[in-house]
Amino acid sequence: MSFIVDHVTVRFQCRIALDDVSAALDERRIAVIGDNGSGKSTFARVLNGLILPDEGRVLVDGRDTLTMGDKIRAHVGFCFQNPDTQLVMPTVAEDLALGLKPLKLAPADIEQRVEDTLDRFEIAHLAQRSVHMLSGGEKQLVALAGVMITAPDTVICDEPTTLLDRRNAANVLAVLKDLACRVILVTHDLGQIADFDRAVWFHDGLIAADGSPSEVAAAYEKSLSGIRA
Amino acid sequence: MITGLYIPGDSLLHRCPAGVKLIALVLIGIGLIAIDNLFLLCALAVVVAASYSAFAGLGVAPVWQATRAVLVWLALIVLAQALLAGVEAAAETVVRLLILIWSAALVSYTSRLSDMAAVLERGLAAFKPLGVQPEKTAFMIALTLRLVPAIFAIARDVRDAQRARGVDASVVTAIVPALTRIMAHADAVSDALTARGYERWDTAP
Predict the structure, then answer these.
(1) What's the pLDDT at B4?
(2) Are the C-beta atoms of residues A199 and A212 closer than 8 Å to each other?
(3) Are B5 and B81 in the same domain?
(4) Using a CB-CB distance cutoff of 8 angstroms, which residues of chain A are in contact with residue B8?
(5) What residues contact residue A185 under an 8 Å CB cut-off, 6+ apart?
(6) Distance between CA atoms of A60 and A43, rounded to whole angstroms?
(7) B27 to each of A210, B34, B41, how far by Cα in Å?
(8) Residue A142, CB half-sphere, CA atoms under 13 Å: how many?
């Protein structure tokens, strides 16, 4: 699965979130870093058509997000920063089953896939728990499981560990590391990107650096040194 | 009916299909209208309360939990009935209401929301020619119930934040910031539903 971002500009009222951004994404594990408001979350959302460009276009395996967003989202999962917005059913098992609705599977198949996913993410003990009673770390794992149950080719995670303590963050990152599919991780924690294949640094709606994680992290750190001084 | 309160279990009532329980609930509701003997009503109330332990393995705590949620309303109804129709009529009304509330709560405690939504979906299927979308209607009910605790959490956060800043945390001062956050939350949920394929429910896989 390839992503081609072709001269994309996104405006929110008078603010430019992405300014004529172009990139081709082919690597298996890609990190997107940057400060708050730098455009990295907007970039993540244009990749599966949650946000449509005001100018330019985004092609996913040749399909334009403008016209084929629903088809693209069937293969590109998205995990949000705040799992509370993503978990929409009362219990964990019901929420996982929700993601399978578009596939029109038989109830027995849905039940089996829910069970398999619960086991895979080691959250079977949460199956009948109310989602609003879960801890932050459990919610994020369930949200990720809810995306992965549909077996997407790519999963985009928008700061999935920002609201978590270090233990839960490490747990979620370990799960992300084990995923066989492509992972695009939006984060501002440079410690999370070392083993990625590529990193993209956003600044003021532009790509400030693009390359290996070590190079990009060094450039980003350098930009911060002036502030610290 | 109180929904979204499912307590996992493997009792007789847990294993009973949700549709059967819902039909039984409707029949109980209709039957209650025909009974005007206070002694019989009290006996029925005892049977329903005992069913929590006997057929659902839940013990007595959920009976009180269901009652507590409506205690104020019950008290008001009893008071009004006693003044307008007499003490005996008030007693009959309150026992009838308790039987209904306990029965409805028992169905909720022993039925997954998804099972009840599936029953609703089948029930609404007959109205498809009129433009009703059973699957989406059932989902919207489930979603609404899921969002109730989220909305309470937002309201609590706003009032806590106001208290922390020394602002009088009244309902009036909290309502605008709470509504703003609820709207933002609804927006985010809408994005999440899109990401999870809600728009593809009507199309073939």
Answers:
(1) 55
(2) yes
(3) yes
(4) 128
(5) A29, A30, A31, A32, A157, A160, A176, A192, A193, A196
(6) 14
(7) 67, 11, 15
(8) 34
Chain B interface, best mutation among A85, A114, A155, A159, by max B CB count within 10 A: A85
Average pLDDT value for residue range A211-216: 94
Digit-coded pLDDT (tens) for A88-97: 888 899 899 9
Q: Do B201 and A102 touch (CB under 8 A)?
A: yes
Q: What is the DSSP string of B21-81?
A: HHHHHHHHHHHHHH---HHHHHHHHHHHHHHHHHTT---SHHHHHHHHTTHHHHHHHHHHH
- B129, A74 contact by CB (below 8 A): no
The two tokens of residue B27 are 């029949």
Domain count of the fold of chain B: 2
Q: DSSP letter at B199? A: G
ipTM computed for the complex: 0.81
Residue ranges of chain B whose pLDDT lies below 50: 1-3
pTM (global) more than 0.90:
no
Question: B83: domain range?
Answer: 1-111
Residues B133, B71 within the same domain? no
Q: How many CB pairs under 8 A join A and B?
A: 89
Which tens digits make up the pLDDT trace of B75-95? 999 899 889 888 988 999 999
